[in-house]
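REQUEST ID: PR-0412
SUBMITTED BY: lab tech R.K.
PRIORITY: routine
TASK: structure prediction, single protein chain
INPUT:
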Amino acid sequence: MDIATLSLRTQADLIASGALSSEALVRHYLDMISKHNGEVNAIVQVARVEDLIAQAQAADEKVRSGAPLGRLHGVPMTVKDMCKVAGFPCTMGTEGLTGFVAEEDATIVARVKAQGAIILGITNVPELLMAFETDNLVYGRTNHPLDSQLSPGGSSGGEAAAIASGCSPAGLGSDSMGSVRVPASMVGIAGLKVTQGRLPQTGRVPMEGASLHVRSASYGPMGRYIDDVALLLEIIAGPDGIDPNTMPVPVQDYQRCDISTLDVAWYENNGWCEVQPEIAQALRRAVDTLAPFVGSVTNEAPACLNKVKSLALEMIAFGADGGQSWYQGAKLLGSKALSPLFEAFLESASSCQLTVTELRGRLREWDQYNFAMQAFSQRYPITLCPVSATTAQAHGHSVNQIDNYTFTMAYSLSGQPVATVCIGKDNNGLPIGVQVVGQLWCEHQVLAVASVLERAFSQSGAAN
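STATUS: complete
OUTPUT:
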């Protein structure tokens, strides 16, 4: 049995049947962490080995007792360093939070624990999550599992690298501007940005200000396979009675979703950057692969993409106040020294300081943008497009390549669900991902389409 290739669902089923012990599974991942995490620096806080083994042994005893089991019973996983896990430090990569230890679980963590999951540890992030790569003054830099000179992306770069390096089977990340999708694409795993309002944000480490940023921020599951993120979504979705912005919309089963009548749009050019040739080629292969399974495929992009960069940067990233909410937030948390990545972000943000009148105008533009995107999604319930203009890049390059990430920003603004799945590799063997975008609350359609692509490219060897 090759544990490294097992999905979350299969791991849980094998444990429940007695064919695999939770202890053996936990020991496997501890061994992988020992072998690979020193080089990758993905998991920055690992639970005490004796505690993990005790939890796994208790899970195995529960199986033997015949007691009811949760859907993740005895399965280990990891959590991004911005989501509270009781007993673990939660720093968001900023100096001022180095002494903070969570006393309770975030809602989504409590939900996976209630289904039997065992938390292996906490994964790395850029400072205050504000970069498309992963480095900070608290834990240092996270490296790409295939090449330590490359970045796995950000801000869920630690989570992505942990999964891709085999140190964790799956985990909980977050996405605001592409923070699940970009790292998932860079390392070749699956990720899901959910519909805004699908998951409760309770237990997210708070920071003063940045309210416009929060408008597009959400947790997001990550895993080796589309089925992993689908299973996690089913478990963590829904209101918790605390976060008032979470909607009671049921999650539909992607495995029962008929995609045969769906009209699909696709585009490789968003007007902001030129994509790497291998990415364009992989996208066209994905479109050709998907065509027999859906109603139609059309090469068309939303006309409103020309608004993406200004709206996403001014409103979501910079907060319309010259980055003051971010700077003041870091200082309120007690951070005296700031990482070079975060300082570069603040320098970029300093040029964006809107008057109240200008802010009102941008909010109106954002609404108009969303109306246009929803109209487009009514015509085309599914859209395929790149995740980024390039595959994984060298550390330190993301600040000067912001246009490369406008593909993900487009759907951060609209709040639509997006799955990322690997559809091939470039000429250097680096993974290429694709965004599968859907209508609001239609994660089942997104996951169903993504699973077709996953099966096709896994079987062809293009994504292996």
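NOTES: The chain has a mean pLDDT of 97.
REVIEWED BY: pending
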